[in-house]
Amino acid sequence: MSFRWLKLYMPRGLYARAALIIVLPIVLLQVAVSFQLISRHFEGVTEQMSFAAAREVQLVIELAEARHEKADELERVLEGLDIDLRFPNRIDAKDTRLWYDFSGIVIMRTLREELPELQYVQLRDDRIVRLFLQGSNAPMVIEFDRRRMSASNSHQLIVTMVFFGFLLTLVAYAYMRNQLRPIKKLATAAEAFGRGRVVPYSPRGALEVRAAGNAFLNMRNRIERFFEQRTLMLSGVSHDLRTPLTRMKLSISMLDADEREELDRDVEEMQRMIDAFLDFARTDFEDERSELDAAKFVTEVVDGCARAGQDVKVHKIEGDGNVTISPVSVRRAIENLIGNAVRYGNHAEVSVRITEKSLRIRVEDDGPGIPADQREEAVKPFARLEPARNQNKGPGVGLGLSIAADVARAHGGVLRLRDSERLGGLRADLVFGR
């Protein structure tokens, strides 16, 4: 039997689920205990008290039948038992009981079993019991206090159970909240690190939580060392390559124009590859985050690319608001997407959509696009799909989409590649959470 439908009604937060785990057993226990107590204890007590009251009523009925001979004795019994007795001309009544008066069911049942003369029982409130009886000589109406037939203040037990149940729930929730706080801090630190930010974190709490926290810190330190070593290595390699490239440029400049054209093109290609490697080596963990106007920021990046000779423009901006991002890394990602768009197409357009929860930067081109089965491969470092795409401005290095995807992941976002329905080429969406 599948219980997957329960997931639709389960809370998603850790605190809410912990509260459910605490409160649900307490409520079920109280309901079960209350039911058993009311059905057994109060029912038994009410039945015994009703039986005793029925014996007293039976005595009154016997004296009332012989009231002419035992008038004085009847008066003493009524006064001693605090019972009111009337002799109406006829009986015109019906059984009455409040809908929540469950002990009244037991009272009626016991009285009917013990009093054959009983016609109707009225329990209009919790204070008076009124009995309508048909005696051998005349009808009778007997009234007495309800407290003689059922336990008084029976609600006090339920009130006490609810009060202490609520109190124990608060105590348990406070303790559980103290235990869950280290888990929440660990989740906050992990989420921040996934978005490229390092927040102070110290493992606390139970042994298992401390172990998970220490494992997270070790993982974070290893990742930071890896990025640092990668940056140093590529920076060192690029620095070592710049010196011979400079010498090559000086040597080529001394050649004739016809002889150095192809060599200049090769040197520029090598320079461009080194710059791409450096961009790939830089990580968002080293950039400072700042709060920027998203629409204004993207517009400035597009205008800068247009001034550099790229055929790109802003198509549409939806919404407004500020976002906290690394401007250097995000600018690099947008420029790479625009560069790819104008490299493999003739024209590119950029759209921005800002909502309460996300920022989406869309770059579309009119090129051949990327087949759906190759898009996952296209975002990998050094992936080059030239056989599948036309090239207007020379071959690429294979790092443009990879850099954009890394920047998106560092901000807790994602890079999505789709077909552009409007321009017919590739549609690249950079999506960041706000």
UniProtKB/TrEMBL annotation:
PROSITE patterns: HAMP (PS50885), HIS_KIN (PS50109). The chain crosses the membrane at residues 157-176. InterPro entries: 2C_sensor_his_kinase (IPR050980), HAMP_dom (IPR003660), HATPase_C_sf (IPR036890), HATPase_dom (IPR003594), His_kinase_dom (IPR005467), HisK_dim/P_dom (IPR003661), HisK_dim/P_sf (IPR036097), Sig_transdc_His_kin-like_C (IPR004358). Its EC number is 2.7.13.3. It catalyses: ATP + protein L-histidine = ADP + protein N-phospho-L-histidine. Keywords: ATP-binding, Cell inner membrane, Cell membrane, Kinase, Membrane, Nucleotide-binding, Phosphoprotein, Transferase, Transmembrane, Transmembrane helix, Two-component regulatory system. It is a multi-pass membrane protein. This is histidine kinase.
